[in-house]
Amino acid sequence: MANLTQRAQQKTRTPGSAEHIRRELRVLNIYRVFQALAYVVLSFSSLIFTWMPLSDPLIARASAAVYLLFALVMLARTSRMPRRLTANASACLTVDMLAAFLATLAIPSAHTGIAAMLVINVGAAALLLAPRLGGLFAALATLAMLAQALLAGNDPAAPLLEAGLFGVAYFATAALCYALGSQMRASEALAEQRGTDLANLAQINDLIIRRMRTGVLLVDDSNHIHQINESAWVLMGNPGVDQRDLGAIAPELSRRLYHWRTIHESDSTAVALAEGAPEVVPRFTRLSAHDDAHVLVFLDDTSLVSQRAEQLTLTTLGRLSASIAHEIRNPLAAIRYSAQLLAESELSDADQRMVEIINNHCGRVNEIIENILQLSRRERSRPENLDLNNWAVRFIDEYKEANDTGPDLLRPLLYPRPVEALADPQHLQQVVWNLVQNALRYGRLPDEPARVMVVARLASDNGPPLLEVIDRGPGIPPKVAAQIFEPFFTTHQYGTGLGLYLAKQMCDANQANLEYVPVAGGGSCFRITLTAPVRMSVVAEA
């Protein structure tokens, strides 16, 4: 992981570093062109001026022309970043040293100026290359000047002193340029990193604001909307993209904003800003302490507050009910045990019927207690990889072994290829058991046996895995279907209203979704959309 992170960082830094190097190379190549032009002018000026003698006109003019052509070619290739920067830059600088050496030999009267021009090339070597290569080219330039001094005349003492001084200048320039280049690159890298961090932070902030459940708007003093997040857009009824006038989109919100601007009091009553949109409570605040023109508007969805309050109430109720259920179990067990003892006595048919009623209601109360205790436990899921085809077959076999289905039909419907899902087998067993019991109990037509199928399939070729419990009964009316997953809601006189609610909670704990889907032609379908297992791929590094 560390290697992958370092490679990603290097890839991130490459474009910026390449651009800096390209700029430096462009400047050096432009300077090289002017340097070659100077050599050309000096070598051909002897044709006009007698005071510019050449020791070897052919070498001077040929080397100057070739060097100018080389400089123009390198300038044209600047836009294409060389793959081997060190090798290409070293070759170019070596040509610079050779051209300067030949020019000082062929144009002895201008050797001081040519040696001075070479300082820029040495500094560029220190900027572009490693410290050792920068020092190497400073040494090559010094040796070139010393060789020219030795070959210039019979008394090389003064030229050698001058060449030595130029050598000191070359090494000093290389050291200074390397220090400045290191500091410049560090500053550029820091600025680039900070720019990247700032861009990432701005992107994260923008993503957080857009994904907030609270609506956020930025409105100026002319009621023009400058910024709006997705939640605010939905809470305002999904207005058009080009609509930015707050008064036209949400007149009530515009009125409350004007009221807050004028008397600095806000109305905290909930209001629906569009037809079909949930009610919200607007809050207003200035963008900054010294900016009275721009106002931030926060839209708090009251339905979210209601859901949180409902969850808190259910949690508290579950804990209270669990404590009460534990206390009820003891007298309930005593009542049931007494009824069983009473049933063993010689009783009349009427008394036997009374004992049967007592046992039935004790079982019902015990079922309610079990549901309430299960509601309060909220066991954590332990997901495993399951093949829903095999799981459905095993489930139906276990259900038929534990329950006498009689004439009712309960069968699996399997997918032609494996359907893999990630879920807790125990939780999934409880959920489907509850759904199958409800389907066999309520999903039947009058005077007909129930027909229930447990279907394992995929939503599409690459879609999520599905597990469905389908019956061919009368179905569920739409008004009832909208409330079946609410706690303590039931339409049966002996129901507790907790079965489907607990099934929904278990599905949520397994990152699954339980929903009711009407069946065309009659019947009901309870669909569980499960999570597909994640396939981990291992990448081997060479």
> Terminal Cα separation, in Å?
14 Å
Structural class: alpha+beta
Which segments are poorly predicted (pLDDT under 50) over 5 or more consecutive residues?
A: 1-16, 536-542
- Strand proportion, as a percent range, falls in 5-15%
Q: What overall geometry do the principal axes of the alpha carbons give? A: elongated
Number of strands: 12
Give a summary of the structure in a few sentences.
The protein is of the alpha+beta class and 542 residues long.
Report on this structure:
It is a single chain. The chain has 542 residues and is an alpha+beta fold. It has 4 domains: 2-199, no CATH class; 215-302, Beta-Lactamase (2-Layer Sandwich); 305-377, Orthogonal Bundle (Helix Hairpins); 384-529, Heat Shock Protein 90 (2-Layer Sandwich). The protein has helices spanning 2-44, 57-76, 85-106, 111-128, 131-152, 157-211, 230-235, 246-249, 251-263, 302-343, 349-377, 388-402, 425-442, 478-481, 499-509; strands at residues 215-219, 225-228, 271-272, 279-288, 291-301, 384-387, 409-413, 420-423, 451-458, 465-471, 513-518, 524-529. Strands 2-1-5-4-3 form a 5-stranded antiparallel β-sheet. It has a 5-stranded mixed β-sheet with strand order 7-9-10-12-11. 24% of the residues are buried.
